[in-house]
Amino acid sequence: MSIAVKTQPIIGTPAIGAPRVLSIDIFRGLTMAVMIFVNALSGVQGLPWWTYHAHANEDVMTYVDMVFPFFLFVVGMSLPLSVSQRLKRNSSLPLLWMHVIVRSLSLLVLGLILANAERSDLRMPISGSTWAVIALVCAMLYLNVYQKWERFPAYSLVLRILGFVGVVISLAIFQGTGRDGHAVWLNFSYPEILGLIALSYLAVAILYIPTRRWRWAPPVWFVLLVSLCAFTTARIVTLPRHCSLYVWPFGNGAMACIIMAGVITSSIFLGAAARDNLRRTMTYAVSFGVLMLAAGRALTPLGISKIRATPTWSLYSIGASVLLFTLLYWICDVKQWTRWTFFVRPAGSNTLLTYLLPDLWYFLLSAMGITIIDSSFNSGWQGVVKTFIFTFFILGIAWVLTKAKLRLQL
Fold first, then answer.
1. Fewer beta carbons under 10 A from the terminal one: N or C of the chain?
2. Does residue 107 surpass a pLDDT of 80?
3. Global pTM?
């Protein structure tokens, strides 16, 4: 799929019905591939320090610490397009907000399933791995995009209802082990990456949707979010001690500002205010990326840490995201050199399924009692080779399932 650059809106609010930008899917697919790789690599020992997440007490960030921000960034890039397309199909704002809330809750539930599977109590009737497989399969039944079947038009509704009921039952029967040794329900303290994305997405939607018609709004929100992150990191502003993301989804502003930066970048490449000026578009994008790197450098006295969610971590990640996306846009959408992207296309267009596949694979092996794969080749170059093989294996499964019309969508 390709787009004609001359017909592409550049700056401002994304035009309704704007053509799909291939580089967004490719950026998302590459991010997913690297995410699969670094998550699997975390279990390999004896590698250089920069191949792992930096520790909370270290004032440094590695390339691994930038993978999650890249995903947040592309969530922001997709947000204006999604909102415009939904309002084009149906102009009802209540329906739009219902979609945002359901999408956030769905991601949050998936995140809680992944986060709690390994905390299951032995007194639960099934193992945590078996519970996770059942819960994820039911969630996939609910979220799958079904093809039309004339002989049984209602089959998709039946499967979605079964999937929804299965998820509810799975959550209802879960038992974990509390600090005192007694059985407890789900632990909501850390909703995994999907849950963090859900809450941050909701926070940015709260800001973006009411002000989407005002071109100046995303930059203003972005500055305010970065300021919140800087002031809280410097302890000039103190958030309530027990202020949960469930109550205040903005957190300290770090994750939300990355998503909002994606919204701004989307407006640069897909806006309606300027057309037929590729040079100006690229100049704006590169300038924005360089400005973010410079701002991150200026705030380094506040620390550089993903775990502490410092402003420099956010701004460095934003700068790298903008510059990388600009390069991909030039290669894939302007020059239309896309053959090399075949291995990440399914991960970019069927992202949620690709994200769940590694966890589903691990839980399935654990439920079957197969441990030899997980316990072998876990150090040095052998572990790296094993991780590469696993990454391409998951991307291959994603390709096969996408070809088979299995696609998850929120």
1. N
2. yes
3. 0.91
